[in-house]
Amino acid sequence: MKIKTILSSTPVIAFIGFWIFAAILYGDVFYMAEQYSLFAFDQQIMEFILDQPGGKLYWFGRLLLLSYHEPWIGGFLMSVLLTGTVCLVRKSFALQGKWEWISLLPSILVLWYLILKGQNLYYQQEPSVVFLWPLAVFILAALVSIAFHFISGKPSQPVSSSRWGQGICGVLFLGLYLYTWTGKENERITASMQRAYQEQNWDKMIQQAKQAKQPTRNVAAYHAIALLQTGRLLNNLLDIPYQYPDLGLINRGGLPDDGTDLYLSDCCLSSGLVNTAYHQAMERMVIDGPSCYTLKLLFFCSLLNEEYALANKYLYLLQQVPFESDFVRKYMPLVANPKVILEQPFFNRILALKPTNDSFEQSYRSPLFIGYPITGNHIRNQQTFDVSMAACLYTKLLDEVVNRTRPYKGKELPLIVEQAVVLYTYLQKERTTNLLSQFQIRPSTIQQVENFLSQYVKDGKVADELIPQLQEEYGHFYPFYYFCQNKIDEEQMKRYQILMKGGVN
């Protein structure tokens, strides 16, 4: 009976509830905050933090954040802090019986704040706040408890927890979980995909992306990387919808940000633009300071550029970071060993896509991992063809799609390409005489495109109110994507106008 009473007490319920959130539900977000941080005991390495106002506080916060290298450990440590706050608040204000649930509120509000920050927990912000806020509230609760101890004198007689109070505790946690699961779906999925990207778990990334009801650009970008790495880019490009919601991110200058820097370097690297990825990662390190995530990316770029001395320096820095020794041990044998590098599927695909000639980045539309492939003078193998074709399909450049179909003359086109070509013949009838006769076009595709155009497309567009109804049936159909998805959101355009440079949505 005594064990049952302990297990049903508010502190135990709080600890379990906090751990489920901090280790399981939001564990990947906090893990990515740890990866976007950097901590070492070497003061010279940490000079960029220690020299800031409040640098020692950030240093300590980053030390605590190391625990999230394993989310279950980080979740345990955070739960201890939050549960400690619950106990201190309960003791300070003598909250017992049906009022015990009130002691959860300060800790719940801390988590609510961290949830509301979303990707800004680690995107262009100081990631140590993950632990500094729970720690600050714990210290404040401790000070209040000490003050009340001297003021109030004798402690009140203990009263057992009431079921009503326990029920409210359950409702508080349930509300927290539901909001995190639904309201912050894209933030959770993006962090999970970034972690899977580090692990090169492409199938997990693809499955994660499919779970998003309305994926953001971040989710779409990492989904494309996974499809590229598994050779499924053209076959599965339309597996997710493309009408991006606003993430509400804030950049380091306090201005609205569309989150491009979150995935830009990874997409450039994965599409073979190693030097561009190098440039973006170096820029991020100069402005935001070094992080584990950025150092790993810089290592990959220097390794693929055969800058082995530089690659060793990045590995040395990572070796000074607790818990990063596994990464160093895994990749150390690849340094100055091109044959072993080529044996790695991840690096092999990147090198197959690497440009063969130099040119200025400013010559292409942004982002470059889309702007470069839509130029048609670099296709030399199947990988570059798939990336180039996918970029043209994504940007709705049907002229360029048709120009890239020459290798398929007399053959069957990939289904999404076939749908785009048939659509092109209806949109540009005067320029496409006998175009379809050059390929083995499925009659069913012609009929589907014709039916879609005649039923739903009026004056060159589909009515907005019809789009949700058509999503389920036509979600994998290119004409639906062409007319109904990846449309410019005027409100977002105004919000991010400062950042816009005539690039691709």
Spatial arrangement of strands, main beta sheet: 1-2
* Percent strand: under 5%
**Percentage of helical residues?**
55-70%
Round the mean pLDDT to the nearest integer and report it: 90
Multimerization status: single chain
Radius of gyration equals 27 Å
Structure write-up:
By secondary structure, this protein is mostly helical. The protein is built from 28 helices and 4 strands. The chain has helices at residues 2-7, 10-25, 27-35, 47-50, 55-65, 71-92, 105-117, 129-152, 163-183, 185-199, 202-211, 217-229, 233-236, 260-270, 274-288, 292-304, 308-319, 325-331, 338-343, 345-353, 368-371, 382-394, 398-403, 415-427, 443-456, 467-474, 478-484, 490-495; strands at 249-250, 256-257, 457-458, 461-462. It has a two-stranded antiparallel sheet with strand order 1-2. Strands 3-4 form a two-stranded antiparallel ribbon. β1 (249-250) and β2 form a beta hairpin. It is globular. The mean pLDDT is 90. InterPro entries: DUF6057.
Short description:
With 505 residues, this protein is mainly α. The chain has 28 helices and four strands.
Question: Secondary structure elements and their pairing?
Answer:
Layout: H1 2-7, H2 10-25, H3 27-35, H4 47-50, H5 55-65, H6 71-92, H7 105-117, H8 129-152, H9 163-183, H10 185-199, H11 202-211, H12 217-229, H13 233-236, E1 249-250, E2 256-257, H14 260-270, H15 274-288, H16 292-304, H17 308-319, H18 325-331, H19 338-343, H20 345-353, H21 368-371, H22 382-394, H23 398-403, H24 415-427, H25 443-456, E3 457-458, E4 461-462, H26 467-474, H27 478-484, H28 490-495
Antiparallel strand pairs: 1-2, 3-4
InterPro entries: DUF6057
Transmembrane segments: 12-33, 72-89, 101-119, 131-152, 164-182
Keywords: Membrane, Transmembrane, Transmembrane helix
